[in-house]
Amino acid sequence: MKFDILLLVGAGGAAGSMLRYAFACWMTGCVRIPSFFGTFVVNVVGSLAIGFIYGLSERHGWFSPQLNRLLTTGLCGGFTTFSAFAYENLCLVRDGQWGTATLYATSSIIVCLAATFSGTVIAQ
After folding, report:
1. At what angle do helices 3-29 and 35-60 cross, to 10 degrees?
2. SS3 letters for 49-92?
3. What is the DSSP letter of 31?
């Protein structure tokens, strides 16, 4: 692992987290929608952004590996980890690993919901 890339990912993650918080505040305060819908919109926007960045990088080679990590793992990952989840599934499907992609997507949803529930039970 290279320290310079780690710093870039960290900077992008901080920026993405701040953007997510600002966006969520705007969605619930100004637009007055339920917080879960704000999260849904963030997940969709983040997934669109990481797909767009991936597409530009793959097709045109516009981004250096460092900038690619800053924008995808850092910024999009900080904005929404769902974008990373979507990207990883896209890569599995692209590589013809449909079974693994299906298992990953299904188990991620089920296991993470169960873990969240378990965490709330343990905390009580």
Report:
1. 140
2. HHHHHHHHHHHHCCCCHHHHHHHHHHHHHHHCHHHHHHHHHHHH
3. S
More confident call, 12 vs 85: 12
- Which pair of tokens denotes residue 102? 């299906």
Residue type, 95: D
Q: How is residue 82 written in tokens?
A: 């769902």
Residue 14 falls in which region: left (phi positive, over 0), alpha (psi -120 to 50) or beta = alpha
Torsion sign, CA atoms 29, 32, 36, 37: negative
Buried b (16+ CB within 10 A) or exposed e, 79-102: bbebbbbbbebeebeeeeeeeebe
pTM, 2 dp: 0.73
Closest CA to 7 of 53, 73, 58: 73
What the block records as the tokens of 64 is 């250096």
The model's pLDDT over 70-103, given as tens digits with 9 standing for 90+, comes to 999 999 999 987 877 888 888 899 999 999 999 9
CA-based nearest residue to 101, from 114, 91, 113, 110 = 91
